[in-house]
Amino acid sequence: MSFYDVLKSVDMASVASALAAATEADVLRALASERPTRADFLALLSPAAARQLEPMARRAHELTVRHFGRAINLFTPLYLANHCVNRCVYCGFNTHHDINRRQLTLEEVEAEARCIAATGLRHILLLTGEAPRTSSVEYMADCARVLAKYFASLSVEVYPLDEAGYARLLEAGIDGMTMFQEVYDEAAYLPLHPGGPKRDYRFRLEAPDRACAAGFRQVGVGALLGLHDWRSEAFCTGLHADYLQSAYPSVEVNVSVPRIRPQTGGFQPKVEVGDRDLVQYIAALRIFMPRAGITLSSRERPGLRDNLLRLGVTRMSAGVSTSVGGRATGQSDPGQFEISDDRSVAEMAAMFQSQGYQPVYKDWQ
């Protein structure tokens, strides 16, 4: 059984009804529970819980400090290529967009690595568009061998691979992966992905299963907030993380909570997800999954990231460039999306320390 089977067993109409029917008494009961259930998670995501953000935030903070201490892992993305064959309507890499397409040579990869390593970071996330003929598994493995000289931990956020592909990356030194499902509601997913291999909903959904089976140490999941009802998408994301944590107990499970940002093509979000909604999502997720990592990216603006630090977040990006080769060349081509927080690694570390938190530059050796 994979998560696809788990998700198919969930009656989404009942989920919507439960979200609408939850009361403040349900929320308070969920807040008091030592082992919150799925029903408790739904209550914490409900409109009724929006009136209990303060106690939810206090509970989330207490659980985060208990399980993670006052430490925040820092990482940065490295875009290897922006070639893509998909037609995702919300993505700046859409194959029909007229952008400067390029892929780093191994020499350019090493130049980027030197720039990032000079900041002190030892954990990076490698990204490409979905273009297996150019950004092949072998190309990514070659890049990993170059980068291994500079970094202690390499993860990927690339197109879904089969288990053999993940095993090949693991052999090359990559041991973490993030796979945004983008939208968990299959009916809503299809029109947002009108062409390209990403239209295969199930192959994408089961990618974390295959990475775990191949031996990856860390997997991350997430929905892109703004593409569909955020409460039901948050619920499905939590179910996915909970399933992975139970099915693969030796694997570190992380959840990302990205909100859609402006990008080439000008796609407008279908659903507005406000700051209070994001606070509620992160707090509910922390209470439901006390041991899961939560990642907050540079999509969010500085002041909000500073405030969310105490809520449940365990990983943040810093020193971000979404341009392919942007650090070494200084080029600032339109990336996959616009970022909101362009602070350097040193500036982020100083912010953490000012709030009593320790910046962690590598999460394992």
Structural write-up:
By secondary structure, the protein is of the alpha/beta class. The protein is about 40% helix and about 15% strand. An eight-stranded parallel beta barrel has the order 1-2-3-4-5-6-7-8, surrounded by four helices. Helix 6 (about 105-115) links the parallel strand 1 (about 70-80) and strand 2. The longest helix is centred in the middle third of the chain and has 18 residues, at about 230-245. The chain is globular, with a radius of gyration of 19 Å.
Count of beta strands: 9
Helix-strand pattern, N to C?
A: HHHHHEHEHEHEHHHEHEHEHEHHE
Radius of gyration: 19 Å
Strand % is 5-15%
pLDDT under 50 segments (min length 5)? Answer: none
Residues in helix, %: 40-55%
Biggest sheet, spatial arrangement of strands: 1-2-3-4-5-6-7-8
The secondary structure category is alpha/beta
- Give the termini separation: 32 Å
Total helix count? 16
Main sheet specs: 8 strands, parallel, barrel
Question: What best-fitting shape do the alpha-carbon axes yield?
Answer: globular
The chain-level mean pLDDT equals: 94
Q: What layout of secondary structure does this protein have?
A:
Layout: H1 3-8, H2 12-21, H3 24-32, H4 38-45, H5 53-68, E1 71-79, H6 106-117, E2 123-127, H7 137-147, E3 153-157, H8 163-172, E4 174-182, H9 186-192, H10 201-205, H11 207-214, E5 218-223, H12 230-247, E6 252-256, H13 275-288, E7 293-296, H14 302-308, E8 315-317, H15 326-329, H16 345-354, E9 358-360
Parallel strand pairs: 1-2, 1-8, 1-9, 2-3, 3-4, 4-5, 5-6, 6-7, 7-8
